[in-house]
Amino acid sequence: MHTSPAKLLILIALSLVILVEGRTVLAFFGINIPPLETALIGLVIIATLVIWAIRPLRGSPTKSE
Amino acid sequence: MTALFVDEYPAEARLVKAAFLSSFIAFGIGALFGIIQALHRTDIFRFIDSIKYYTVLTGHGVFLVIAFTIFFLVGLYQWAVTDSLERGPVDIRFTWFWYGLMAIGSFLAAISILAGFLEQPPMVLGAELRANVLFTFYAPLEANPLYYIGLALFLVGTWLAGIDWFRTWWAWRDENPGERIPLRTFMVLTTMMMFFLGSVGVIVSILVFILPWSLEITESLNPLLTRTLFWFFGHMIVYFWLLPAYLLWYSVLPKLSGGRLFSDPLARVVFILFVLLSTPVGIHHQYMDPGIAEGFKFIAMTNTMFLLLPSFLTAFTVVASMEHGARQRGGEGRFNWLQALPWRNPAFTGMALAGLVFAFGGFTGIVNAGMNINYLVHNALWIPGHIHAQVGTATALTLMAGSYWLVPQLTGNRLVGRQVALFQVVLWFVGIVFMTNSMFRAGLVGVPRRTAEPQYQGFEYDVPVGSMGELNAQLALGGTLLFISAMLFLVLMLLTVFNNDSEPIVDGTLPPALSGPEDSPQVLDNLRLWFGIAFALVVLAYALPLAGIVAQSGLFGQDIPPFPVSSEAVMYLEFGLDYVGALVT
Ligand code: HEM
Ligand SMILES: [Cu+2]
């Protein structure tokens, strides 16, 4: 584990929040991301975070927090 | 570990529990109504008549921002006074008396609202029992007198609660001459001074004008006057919702972060600023009202901008205390200390996320408060967006998080489902951002609030990004997440209450501040002085506008009969509109 489950949960929540609000901010500059793509980006972010989090630490393969 | 609150003060703990119970019942019904609204107004799932939408909306407003918040406040404040003065009330029967008044009052108001769902509401006090007037009850919309009687009893109960806490403090002062007011008691007393001053408006409005008029003792009233008296109270009340959350942020959050409050004097200054400034700003809710001169609106706007100061002070003090705590726990670096905070603890995480949303929501409040830009968002869905970020999250989420810390100490039971609790507070955070983001965006293109069917024939909203369909879906999705989160919270509370044979794992002691009361100038504790200044500011801000309103159309207005809000009335109105429409086309 690269981080604790609690922090992973909060990181996922924060990235969803930044995604939703960030999309709104970008729209003010004429950059429009359609809903479907936004959802896809969200999924990719969540998947990346999860994979990063559960990837075993190098050197200490079994140690978890 | 010290003794639990329930072991030290069993009688007081019982009252706090009763207040929390009332609060949580109101929260449950309010949340149910919330999801109904979210699904109804977006036309995703409509299972009630659109006319009943206003009954639901009245219930949502009253149950959440009157009952849920204020019952929690009186419970929390009773805990704070007892725990920080280390003594109970002078006479606990009086304490139960005010709680009883509040409970009866909210029961009366609740049944008059809920009777609106009946096909044939019974006749009470000479009128049909119903109260579809929303929580602002603007005349000439009229509710059954029972609704106003209920509100009045509730307010009187809250007044007596404040008097009770002052009495407790006076008794403590006699026993401890020359000592500084303990911080939490200071916060309670200043909040109540603010409430005494600001609630005068709504009490006069109900008792002198609206109740007699609904009982047909007086024939007419002046709607602009009752409305202005409501908002005399209406901005103060938002701080009445917020200050319990502040009390938790200042006293409990630093401890949860592993440290101590940064500064006791700053905390006192913040609460005094709220006493001074929270009432003479109410007219900022009336920028669009004719009959109030622009100059007074400008003064209200200026005062409002000053109110940013205590919120910025709070952001500084609370974040500084959190950083101190994180460094005590071994956190290092410019931002890396954030990682050392106890994110696994739902009480901590809930409060921290609530604070984050509060900061964001505060900026939307600056938009509302600007006289010119207010015209863009007035009565648009933007406003419920702001409401849910502030009272709906800064307050509601902090209170839920605080319950995870406090309820085990009140019951002596271990919190059930810590991990679920963490998920619950995070879910609320995500849900609120989805829902309010949609509300803000919809509000900017003119989608109205307080409307069961905000779609019109032959007219499309000019949504710059995406579509109305997308905004609606996002609002309903956010609302659903919030509803699930609310239900999770209530289930966890219920399970905790019945988790009898367990030991709580909380430590209820609160460490002293880094810069303690000895660093606060003595004058900060001179409550008479601050109340006097606050009173003078209110007179300055309100004497002339009120005089102007009365001079224009009299204390009791001119021939303003009630407009009872019933299905028939709406039918007449629809008929009237059709008729006018036919005449015009
Ligand atoms: C279960 C979560 C909730 C949902 C789904 C929800 C949904 C809604 C919706 C859709 C509206 C707009 C109705 C309209 O203008 O037509 C609304 C209004 C409002 N909500 Fe909520 N809400 C929730 C929780 C809360 C909480 C926790 C609070 C406060 C503690 C709150 C306070 C309010 C207030 C004051 C209004 C304005 C009422 C009025 O215009 O008279 N809501 N809510
Ligand atoms: Cu206000």
UniProtKB/TrEMBL annotation, chain A:
Keywords: Membrane, Transmembrane, Transmembrane helix
UniProt keyword Transmembrane, yes or no: yes
Source domain of life: Archaea
Stretches that traverse the bilayer: 37-54
Keyword Transmembrane helix: yes
Record protein name field: CbaC protein
From TrEMBL, chain B:
Any single biological process term in GO: aerobic respiration
PANTHER family on file: CYTOCHROME C OXIDASE SUBUNIT 1, CYTOCHROME C OXIDASE SUBUNIT I
GO cellular component: membrane
One Pfam family, short name: COX1
Keywords: Membrane, Transmembrane, Transmembrane helix
Sequence intervals crossing the membrane: 20-39, 51-76, 96-117, 147-166, 186-210, 230-253, 265-285, 305-326, 347-367, 387-407, 419-440, 475-498, 529-551
Protein name in UniProt: Cytochrome c oxidase subunit 1
SUPFAM superfamilies according to UniProt: Cytochrome c oxidase subunit I-like
MF-aspect GO terms: cytochrome-c oxidase activity; heme binding
Domain Cytochrome oxidase subunit I profile: 20-524
Coiled coil (UniProt feature): none
Superkingdom classification of source: Archaea
